[in-house]
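TA notes, week 10

Several of you asked for a full example with nothing omitted. So below is the full record: structure tokens for the whole chain, then the designed sequence directly under it. When grading your own attempts, check the secondary structure regions first.
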């Protein structure tokens, strides 16, 4: 369930992230909500040109993103479009019972529809099941 209010998100929760930088790490997500709840978006980091963060790029990317966050902190919101630092590349829309899989090294972010609010009721909120595989 997505239940954290935007103003309660930490700095790294306000920008696209990656789950792991190992080559065979996969994220698998099952949407148990409908398309009104957004989906998952994928991004390119503009300063580095990176779309995925591999082990050899991890330190350099970390230095860049922390410097950007110090210069211009992200506002309290769920990230969902392009900005000065990230370019939106594409979206996997939510749909009830849709299963998606993607490399954990890809820069991504949940799209959360602010108009719906955040509900802890699984019948109303943004409910997903996420698991990770590293082989």
């Amino acid at each position: 369930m997505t239940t954290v209010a935007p103003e309660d998100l930490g700095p790294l929760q306000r920008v696209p992230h990656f789950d792991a930088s190992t080559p065979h790490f996969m994220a698998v997500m099952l949407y148990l909500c409908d398309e009104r709840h957004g989906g998952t978006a994928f991004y390119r980091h503009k300063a580095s040109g990176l779309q995925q963060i591999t082990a050899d790029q991890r330190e350099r990317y970390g230095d860049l993103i922390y410097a950007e966050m110090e210069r211009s902190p992200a506002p309290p919101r769920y990230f969902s479009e392009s900005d000065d630092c990230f370019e939106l590349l594409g979206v996997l829309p939510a749909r009830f019972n849709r299963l998606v899989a993607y490399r954990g090294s890809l820069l991504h972010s949940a799209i959360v529809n602010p108009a719906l609010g955040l509900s802890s009721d699984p019948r109303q909120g943004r409910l997903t099941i996420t698991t990770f595989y590293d082989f």
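The helical segments are 58-71. Use that as a sanity check on your answer.
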